[in-house]
Design brief:
Blueprint lengths: L2 H4 L16 H4 L14 E2 L15 H5 L10 E2 L6 E2 L6 E6 H6 L5 H5 L5 E7 L4 E6 L7 E5 L2 E2 L19 E8 L3 H4 L6 E7 L7 E8 L3 E11 L3 E12 L8 E14 L2 E15 L12 E16 L2 E17 L8 E18 L2 E16 L4 E7 L2 E19 L3 E12 L7 E11 L4 E12 L3 H5 L5 E2 L7 E13 L3 E20 L7 E21 H4 L8 E14 L4 E2 L6 E14 L2 E12 L2 E6 L2 E7 L3 E12 L2 E8 L18 E10 L1
Parallel strand pairs: 1-4, 7-10, 25-28
Antiparallel strand pairs: 2-3, 4-9, 5-6, 7-8, 9-10, 11-12, 11-37, 12-13, 13-14, 14-15, 15-16, 16-17, 17-18, 18-19, 19-21, 20-21, 21-22, 22-23, 23-24, 24-26, 26-27, 27-28, 27-30, 28-29, 29-31, 31-32, 32-35, 33-34, 35-36, 36-37
Length: 673
């Protein structure tokens, strides 16, 4: 194929970095806006300060021309495409942003993305519900290196994944329905966590301590050559908790190996995660002594072979064990074990008319439990109930990449054995056009679906009533956006309309009802806007360090429901407004600071509890928080000091579940090159 015909003349790559995506930006000392299409457009990617290895100063950076960026690719779609090649809003959080953020977990990090609603129950990665564009936490697909780890029992556990912050290369967040990219579960969007594969160091170790008995440690080792590279990492964190019964104990272990055979490669992943935590009022404010223990096991093998015709097969398995107690001082336990295994095959063909892909996926989801599922003929140890279902899908997509215009069109055919019906089809069309060198317009239209979780179908207890007859959710979304890109200012503006049908929620018909009931809401229509800007202060004030940046994001969502005046536990309590501000700047000789401000307003109401009894229905109050992190780097050591919620603001993301006030954490790390 004639590659030049389909590549933008100004999309380039640093050849000195041997195809390592984003390594180009790490040496540029400037903010880079990565706009991508084919299912995504990267909004902003920030770079770190130049390391001693690169030995490139600020003056040298200005001599770097755009022509050196030739083939930088991203992986947030079925096809790896270079910059500025297709229309769908995608936020990318880079390695450097993660390094300097005042966070302890991925969930904490996502709080700083204006388009993400993070409803934390416990801090620092204990448990959080992550949603996009007003969707529920069950409507967001969670992936690790392209492997879908969304939990079919409940989205509460979708982030029980074996990964440490030091493992992450970047995070790609697709805004809006993305079934053709990530599968049927990507109803309102998807989050793909991509791990590091580089060999830039031999070993890394970090320890930290802080308020409320917090202690954490991470370590990893890397070995490799041109034929094989391996990485083993482990992480541990604990805390006594900021209120009664909010303690936690978390351990993660991840092993990765990449085999390079001529022009082919094989990626192997194995992971294990163990969590134990006090779940104070997590699922019902009437029970403050809830407790949860979870374990996750994960393995996958992914290959890639071919050039003009590329084969990308994948097989994976993920198990999640859950031991939940509504009252940890009683003998009552809810035991659940979910097993998800599947295989994908993605074929890519490069021709004179673009890139054509065909994908097929087989995914089986099963559960054994003493609460969820249908009665077993004979008990399996502590499990007395079970259920399983298989999802089969086929996707066809074509990418037409011209000089100033690109088009991605495709369709997903999806079948689930639980429905006992025919295949359903979900089309997708995405287009972009470069109006000016600095200005691009993009638009998209997508349809998506989601199956009820096993919790939606079967969770009947003293606090909840399930509904076995729930229908799958369906959505249709239209989006129109603009992106402006200059060395001084990178900005975007996106508007969207989303129509949802048969959306699933847990509701109460009146405040006097004792139990939550799962049901399909008739219809919910959403209209929203997302705005963002990144300003390179170095361009305005040349005396500043090139890494000095100011980043702003704002989202506004309006939701109209066609249902009765139910009391909603999730879907109707949507995040209407969210404003985020981030400032990164150096202070003096290796000392730098990162500030992150967040303000948000949630619609809907919650049932306020006093003395473990429901009282009145009250609206969610608006709130704001401010976090700061100081970093001091010298040689191969790095010292950091993080202050979260520095004004000790009292707030909550979910009614009756208070979040932590001021929390001080300090740490030190060492990297062996």
């Amino acid at each position: 194929m004639n590659q030049k015909r389909f590549e933008k003349p100004k999309a380039y790559r640093f050849k000195r970095f041997a195809k390592k995506a984003y390594s180009a930006f790490n040496s540029m000392h400037k903010v880079v806006n990565i706009g991508v299409i084919s299912g995504c457009m990267l909004t902003f990617a920030h770079s770190t300060q130049t390391s001693a290895q690169n030995k490139i100063n600020a003056g040298d950076n200005q001599k770097v021309t755009e022509k050196e960026l030739e083939e930088v690719t991203v992986t947030a779609s079925r096809v790896e495409l270079s910059l500025n090649q297709s229309p769908k809003l995608v936020t990318v959080i880079t390695r450097s942003e993660i390094d300097r953020a005042p966070i302890q977990s991925i969930q904490d990090l996502l709080n700083y993305v204006s388009g993400i609603d993070v409803q934390q129950r416990g801090g620092h990665g204990v448990q959080a519900d992550i949603s996009i564009r007003g969707g529920s936490f069950d409507q967001t697909a969670i992936l690790l290196n392209g492997v879908n780890l969304s939990n079919p029992q409940t989205g509460h556990y979708s982030f029980d994944i074996p990964i440490n912050l030091s493992d992450i290369e970047r995070i790609e967040i697709i805004h809006g329905p993305s079934s053709i990219i990530y599968g049927a579960s990507a109803f309102s969007g998807g989050i793909n966590i991509i791990t590091r594969k580089d060999l830039d160091h031999k070993a890394y170790v970090k320890v930290e301590a802080g308020s409320y008995g917090l202690f954490g440690a991470e370590a990893n080792g890397v070995y490799g050559n041109k034929d094989v590279s391996s990485r083993l990492s482990a992480g541990y964190s604990r805390s006594d908790g900021y209120i009664s019964n909010s303690d936690y104990d978390i351990f993660n272990l991840l092993w990765q190996t990449r085999l390079n055979v001529e022009k082919s490669k094989v990626d192997i992943q194995l992971g294990y995660s163990d969590k134990q935590f006090g779940a104070n009022t997590f699922y019902s404010a009437a029970y403050p002594n809830q407790q949860d223990k979870t374990k996750s096991y994960f393995g996958s093998v992914k290959g890639e072979v071919g050039n003009k015709l590329k084969f990308i097969p994948l097989v994976y398995w993920n198990r999640h064990d859950d031991n939940f107690q509504l009252n940890k001082y009683s003998d009552g336990h809810n035991f659940h074990q979910t097993d998800v295994y599947g295989s994908n095959l993605n074929l890519q063909y490069h021709s004179n008319i673009g890139i054509t892909t065909f994908g097929a996926e087989f995914r089986n989801e099963g559960i054994k439990s003493n609460v969820l599922g249908l009665p077993m003929k004979s008990a399996d140890g502590k499990y007395t109930k079970s259920d399983s279902r298989t999802n089969i899908s086929y996707a066809l997509e074509h990418n037409l990449l011209l000089d100033r215009f690109s088009l991605t069109a495709g369709i997903l055919a999806n079948y689930n054995t639980a429905l006992k019906g025919k295949y359903k089809f979900y089309p997708s069309i995405n287009m972009s056009y470069q109006l000016l060198d600095e200005l691009k317009v993009y638009t998209s239209w997508n349809k998506a679906t989601r199956m009820p979780t096993f919790t939606d179908l079967y969770y009947t207890t003293v606090t909840h009533i399930s509904n076995y007859d729930l229908k799958p959710e369906d959505s249709e979304s239209f989006e129109l956006g603009f992106k402006y890109n200059t060395p001084l200012l990178k900005a975007y503006a996106t508007g969207y309309i989303m129509k949802g049908k048969n959306l699933i929620d847990w509701i109460k018909r009146t405040a006097d009802d004792e139990k939550w009931e799962s049901m399909n809401l008739t219809e919910i229509d959403k209209q929203g806007v997302e705005l963002g800007a990144s300003l390179s202060l170095y361009k305005l004030f040349p005396n500043l360090d090139p890494s000095t940046t100011l980043k702003l994001g704002y989202t506004r969502l309006h939701q109209k429901k066609n249902s009765d005046d139910y009391i909603s536990n999730y879907t109707l309590n949507y995040l209407r407004d969210k404003l985020t501000v981030g400032l990164n700047h150096p202070i003096y000789k290796g000392l730098s600071a990162s500030w992150n401000f967040r303000w948000q307003k949630r619609m809907g109401t919650y049932l306020k509890y006093e003395d473990l009894k429901p009282t009145v229905q009250v609206p969610y109050p608006a709130f704001s928080t401010l976090d700061v992190r100081l970093d001091w780097k010298f040689q191969d050591f790095a010292v950091n000091l993080t202050a979260n919620n520095i004004f000790n603001k009292k707030y909550f993301d979910l009614g009756n579940v208070p979040q932590a006030g001021f929390w001080l954490i300090g740490g030190i790390s060492y990297t062996l090159k």
